[in-house]
Design brief:
Low-confidence stretches: none
Structural class: mainly alpha
Number of domains: 2
Number of strands: 0
Distance between the termini: 65 Å
């Protein structure tokens, strides 16, 4: 049993090194050598757990997905527009962890666009995110807080708007401060509210 525990502990060490490289260098800097250097180990040790760069990238995206899920808020029991606001706010880069995870996701897009396996993973991730937002939009519509438009279209527009804020904040955090991000999101949701 100790050998299995050591193996699992070492795999966690390698995973942590993958995350540190991603956070510092993005997907462009994620290589077997960079992870080995971060671990102060050989590339042979890294390839024992991840036999190729592709396997390393897939694992990195799985780590990012797990981190994103762990950050998802338990939305307000009242539901509706406030729960939707909470879910969208959780995506914004408002904390050091939020900045880090968003840097990882944005840096992964280039690799995902160029690689069919990663593309499929990213497409599925966006589908899961929209699926989590849809019941919140539908509840806000039922409450009269959002227009009775196609809920899938509203979800897609809100996801696109929120990720637009993320990208702008990552590139220009002095202009897109935390306070401004929250104000912009609030104003956007308020503008959608039927009068």
């Amino acid at each position: 049993m100790p050998a299995k525990l050591d193996h699992e502990a070492r795999r966690r060490d390698v995973s942590a090194a993958v995350w540190r490289v991603l956070a510092a260098e993005g997907f462009g800097g994620l290589t077997l050598r960079a992870v080995a250097t971060e671990l102060n180990a050989t590339t042979g040790l890294v390839t024992h757990y991840f036999p190729s760069k592709q396997a390393l990238i897939v694992h990195a995206l799985e780590l990012a997905e797990a981190s994103t899920r762990s950050r998802a808020p338990v939305v307000d029991a009242a539901g509706g527009l406030e729960a939707l606001r909470q879910a969208l706010t959780a995506v914004l880069p408002l904390t050091p962890e939020g900045i880090e995870i968003n840097r990882v996701w944005v840096s992964s897009w280039d690799a995902a666009l160029a690689n069919p396996e990663l593309h499929a993973m990213e497409k599925a991730r966006y589908r899961r995110w929209r699926a989590r937002l849809k019941p919140l939009v539908e509840q806000a519509q039922a409450d009269g807080d959002l227009p009775p438009d196609n809920p899938d279209d509203l979800v897609a527009a809100l996801a696109a708007f929120t990720h637009g804020l993320v990208v702008q904040a990552l590139f220009d955090p002095k202009t897109f401060t935390h306070k401004r991000l929250l104000r912009l999101l609030h104003s956007h949701l308020e503008a959608l509210t039927p009068r």
